[in-house]
Amino acid sequence: MKLVLTEFVSLDGVSQGPGSPTEDTSGGFTRGGWLVPYLDEQFVRRTSDWLDLADAMLFGRRTYEAFARDWPQITDPDDPYSARMNSLPKYVVTNTLTEGTWHPTTVLRGDAVQIVGKLKTQPGRELQIHGSARLGNALLAAGLVDTLRLVVAPTVVGSGRRLMEHPSEAIGLRLVEQEVTPSGLLVLEYQAAGVVPVAEYEGVSAFV
Questions:
Q1: How many CA atoms, within 13 angstroms, populate the side-chain half-sphere of residue 35?
Q2: Are strands 2-10 and 90-93 parallel, antiparallel or unpaired?
C-alpha cells in the first residue's frame, strides 16, 4: 500500500484541533476549531474523494482515541465521510492501548517505523494517516510517506502543536496538485522526492 499523510494546517503550521474548540485541548490548547469557518463544498468534495482511495487508515494513539470517540456517533446517511470512516480497517500505533474500541481496529505495538514499513508491504491502494501529526512527522522523516496532502487554512493560530516540528530531517517533496477553494483554503498534494535539492544563489545573472 502507498502511505498517504493528510493534514489540516494553519499558515503558521499548527495542526492541533482544527475541527472544534474541544477536539484536542492537550497542553492547554484553547484555539481549536480554526478550520471550520472555511469549510465549503469544494473542500468536502476533494477530501471525500481522497477518502474513497483508502483501503485502510493509520493513527497514533491520541488521534485514534478522539476519532473513536466521535465518528461512531455520526450516523447520518448523508454525511460524506462517516460510512467510510467507520467501516475501513484501522490501525493504531501505540504501546499503551491493548485493544481498539472503533471496529475494525488492529493495535500495533513496537517501533513505529519498523511496524509501518511492514504494513506498507500489504496489498492495497492507500494506507491513509489522518491527523496524528507526531506519527506522521516521524514517518516523513523516515522516508516512509509517499504522498503528503495538505489543506492550509488562511489563518494564523499562534500556538499549538505543529506538523513540522524542529529539529527534524530534511524532506524532499514535489508539488503535483494544487487548488484554492472559494473560502480560501489552499489544497496541496505532494509526492516524496528523495534528497532535498540545494543550490547557491549567484545573483541576477543566474536568472537571465
A1: 24
A2: unpaired
